[in-house]
């Protein structure tokens, strides 16, 4: 039985030495976005990023452990809701507002408005 190595796109890269995996705009799925935004902690993160300023996980006052916080950011990133970039050992997160608006016009604003 031969096994074919996975491509970079098939692997969710999540190490300090490698770029973080983000879906392309056309790969963002509605179900994944809605799932990511269904959690109150993740919704709080999205509200915090809505101002357009890159933020770190530590900059949010979340009532969860560091590992749980990391998990929430990973769910948002893999759903295509946020983009993360490494700056040294720090991950800076931004909201992918334009990408979400392109893919699902009005969705993010409707959810943020309804949840506020």
Short description:
By secondary structure, the protein is an alpha+beta fold.
Question: Care to describe what's here?
Answer:
With about 120 residues, the chain is of the alpha+beta class. About 40% of the residues lie in helices and about 10% in strands. The protein has a single domain (about 30-115), classed as Arc Repressor Mutant, subunit A (Orthogonal Bundle), CATH 1.10.10.10. Strands 1-2 form a two-stranded antiparallel ribbon. Helix 1 runs antiparallel to helix 3. The termini are far apart. Mean pLDDT is about 85; it is low at about 5-20.
Write the layout of secondary structure elements.
Elements (H helix, E strand, L loop, with lengths): L29 H8 L2 H10 L16 H14 L2 E6 L2 E6 L1 H7 L3 H9 L1
Antiparallel strand pairs: 1-2
Helix pairs in contact: 1-3
CATH architecture annotation name: Orthogonal Bundle
Number of domains: 1
Distance between the ends: 54 Å
The average pLDDT value, as a whole number, equals: 86
């Amino acid at each position: 039985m031969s096994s074919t190595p996975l491509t970079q796109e098939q692997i969710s890269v999540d190490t300090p030495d490698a770029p973080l995996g983000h879906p392309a705009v056309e790969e963002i799925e509605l179900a994944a976005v809605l799932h990511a935004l269904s959690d109150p902690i993740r919704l709080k993160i999205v509200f915090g990023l809505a101002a357009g300023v890159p933020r770190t996980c530590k900059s949010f006052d979340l009532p969860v452990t560091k590992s749980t916080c990391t998990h929430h950011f990973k769910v948002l990133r893999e759903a295509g809701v946020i983009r993360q970039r490494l700056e040294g050992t720090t991950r800076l997160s931004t909201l992918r507002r334009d990408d979400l608006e392109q893919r699902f016009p009005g969705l993010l604003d409707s959810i943020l408005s309804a949840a506020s």
